[in-house]
Amino acid sequence: MEVLFCISSLVAILSTVMVITRLNPVHALLYLVVSFMSVAMIFLSLGAPFMAVLEVIVYAGAIIVLFIFVTMMLNLGKETAEQERNWLKPRVWVGPSLLAAVLLAEMIILLTKGQPGSMQVTVVDPKKVALSLYGEYIIALELVGFLMIAGIVGAAHIGKHRKKTFHRFLEDEAETEQQLKADYHDVHTG
Amino acid sequence: MTVMQHIWIVLGVLFVLLNIAAGLIWVERRLLALWQDRLGPNRAGPLGIFIVLADTLKLFFKEDWIPPFADKWVFITAPAIVAGSVLLSFVIIPFAPGIVVADLNVGLLFFLAMSSLGVYSIVLGGWASNNKYALLGAMRGASQMIAYEVFMGLSLMGVVMITGSFNMGDIVDAQKNVWFCFTQPLGFIIFFIAGVAETHRLPFDIPEAESELIAGFHAEYSGMKFGMFFIGEYLGITLISAMTVTLFFGGWHGPAFLPPLAWFALKTILFLGLFILLRASLPRPRYDQLIEYGWKVLLPVVLANLMITGAIALWLKST
Fold this sequence. Notes:
The complex is a heterodimer. Chain A is mostly helical. Helices cover about 80% and strands about 0% of the residues of chain A. Chain A has helices at about 1-20, 25-45, 50-75, 80-85, 90-115, 125-135, 140-160, 170-190. The radius of gyration of chain B is 20 Å and the shape is globular. Chain B has one domain (about 65-319). In chain B, helix 1 (about 5-35) packs across helix 11 (about 225-250) and helix 3 packs antiparallel against helix 5 (about 120-130). Chain B has helices at about 5-35, 50-60, 70-90, 105-115, 120-130, 130-165, 170-175, 180-185, 185-200, 210-215, 225-250, 260-280, 285-319. Chains A and B meet through helix 2 and helix 3 of A and helix 4, helix 5 and helix 6 of B.
């Protein structure tokens, strides 16, 4: 299990680095899918199959599809790649990556020299997840529900458009009728 | 189960599936011809069955062309995703007692995860082709499949509630006396509709609607890459049929006079026929009609089904 964990973490790190360095946004998103799937593998190797599958269904299967959906409609071309290249100068990324490397070194030391029993795997089945979600964490769950409803209501409000009942020819007719009425009004008051 | 037995099961499932996918080329044409009052392919070999051979040979030897304006690597990956994700879904289906590749604890969710990854083949194929029609097809495909995935997942939750498990073996065992198509009729109907939409088969084939979009997302594909989309579609039909049988029609259960595997195959073939009959008889809806039908009709119905099932399950538990 530990070997599987190490391999999938390595894949996760590599693919995430690729997400940041790709110039074409769709290629970056594809690497993001791989990253999510390797995170799912990490969950699986740590004994959480339910979380692993949900990671694939929700993140890899739904959210990133929507990301790609939007990006592919933007029709990003060579100019975006050029812009990305300009943004990705060593001056920008050297500092954060040095700091992250320090953290990585610390974690490797902890993993190799820490207590040997720190990677104990207990399998959590869906039933346990459900019981803790609807038992211990019920209030948090309800609050998340409120948040989601807010999102849905917002989307419904933005997406609403007034329905046109007229055919376009009839619409013209209605306009001229209104114009006539206005003229009539003008004549009789002015 | 020994390792050797396991490998044999994997190879056997793969062999049967790929042959079914190829054989469906002939079955579909002959059945369509039957329902449209004509003969269909009947020249090559007995009953014209060698049309399968001719078709696959043609696909293999056609020029495999990648358009110069396409995004090469994404273009190549897209058809592999559809075949791969559908084949992986078959891993969790129990064909008969003991004949299952992976008896996963979260089997049903694994199926949903794989079917949600299948969307990528359409989206990426359409985007990488760098063609307006392909892009339109990809957009339609993405929104159709994301929408219908929701109803597919929700329609199965009734079955999960009654069984109390995501394991496919447990779900089949729970149908020993009563099949779930009787206790969950709404769930079955919605799952089947969503399944047709997920495999983007006629009447819901709007991502590739040939009368409007030429061939939609795979307009630029040729040779065996097109063949992968083709095989992926037939595998998808087989998958949805097998899943319908496992979840709602008792899996390998049946009256005693046939072996379990035969019952499973028989029921699956019946549903394959139903898929082809749908193609022969129903007109294609408009794109907005399809999406509206999903969110305004199927979603409320499936939620009501879920709540009623939950209420009855609670009531039965308390009495």
